[in-house]
Amino acid sequence: MRRITVKELISWKQQQLSKGGDDQSFSFLLDSVGGVSSSEINLLKTNSRDNLYLKRNLSFLESIWEDHLLSASPIQHLCGITFWRDLKLEVSNKVLIPRPETELIVDIVFEIFGRESQKLLFAELGTGSGAISIALALAYPLWEGIATDIDQEALRIASKNFINTSNQSNLNFYFGHWWNPLENFKGKLDLAISNPPYIPGDIYEKLPKEVKNFEPKIALFGGEDGLKHIREIIQGAPLFLKEKGWLILENHYDQGEKVKQLLIKNRFTLVEILNDFSGIGRFTIGRYK
C-alpha cells in the first residue's frame, strides 16, 4: 500500500487532468486500480492532511492514464475491469463494455417475474462479459441460466466473471451463434434475453474512435439496417421458448417500432417498447403467444 495525503492526491489528480481526459474516467482509474473511490476522497477533503492508501504507486497510475490519452483506448480496457450494477467484471477488447442503460434489462425481468420466483430456465444470447446473466443468476438462485457467445475468449471472460462473483452453479456457458448451441432446449425456455449487435452501417462508420477502434465490431455492427441479428433472434425464438415465455431485446434508439412489428409477426403478444434512462425506446419485449 502506498501512503499519500488527500492534498497530495488531489494536486496530482489535477496535474494529470490538465493533460486531457475527463474526471469520470480518471476517477474510474483511481477506484479500480488505485483502490481509492471519489466518495472516499470527498469525505476526507475537509482535512487534506489525512492519509489515503493506494494499491499502486502514482507512476503506474500515470502510465495508464497517459496510455488512455495517447491511444484513446477505453479506460476500462486498460484497467481490465468495469463496474456494472453491483458487479465488478473483467473486460477486454474481446467483449463489449456493458453500458449503464443495459442494467435496465435486469429491472425489466424483475417487473415481469417479481423478485421472488420459482425455478425456471433462461438463456442470454451473446453474453459478452456475462453481465446480464450473472446479475440474474445471483438475483434468482433457483433459476437455471444458459449464456451463449460466438467468441471463445468472451465465454472465458464471462465464465471467470461468474466464478469471481459467486459461489453458485446455476449458470452455464455455451459456445455458438445465437440459438445454435441450444438445440437441446427447444420449447423449454421461460425467458430469452439478448443485447445483440444492432448499430446500422452508416452509424457504425461514425462511431467515436474509442468505440470503433477498440470494442469488437462483432458486438456492435447489426448489418446495414441494424436489424440483421434481431430478425434472426426473433424468428428463431418460437422454437425455443415455452408458450407464454418471454423475449427481451435491446435495440437501437430508433428501432423499437420495427422490432415490435417483427415480434407481432412472429406470434408474440403483450409486445411493448420500454424506455431507457434518457426516455428512448431502448428495449422491446414480448410474450410468445
Integer tally of domains = 2
CATH superfamily of the largest domain: Vaccinia Virus protein VP39
For the secondary structure, the number of strands is 11
Overall geometry comes to elongated
Structural class: alpha/beta
Quote the average pLDDT: 94
Oligomeric nature of the chains: single chain
Strand order of the largest sheet: 7-6-5-8-9-11-10
Properties at a glance:
two-stranded antiparallel sheet, alpha/beta, 7-stranded mixed sheet, 289 residues, Rossmann fold, 39% helix
Report on the structure:
The protein has two domains: 2-71; 85-288, 3-Layer(aba) Sandwich (Rossmann fold), CATH 3.40.50.150. The chain has twelve helices and eleven strands. The chain has a seven-stranded mixed beta sheet, sandwiched between helices. The protein has helices at residues 6-17, 23-34, 38-44, 58-71, 75-79, 104-113, 131-139, 152-165, 201-204, 209-212, 228-240, 256-265, and strands spanning 2-5, 51-54, 81-84, 87-90, 121-125, 144-149, 171-175, 189-194, 241-250, 268-275, 281-288. It is an alpha/beta fold and 289 residues long. The radius of gyration is 21 Å and the shape is elongated. 39% of the residues lie in helices and 22% in strands. The model has no long low-confidence stretch (mean pLDDT 94).
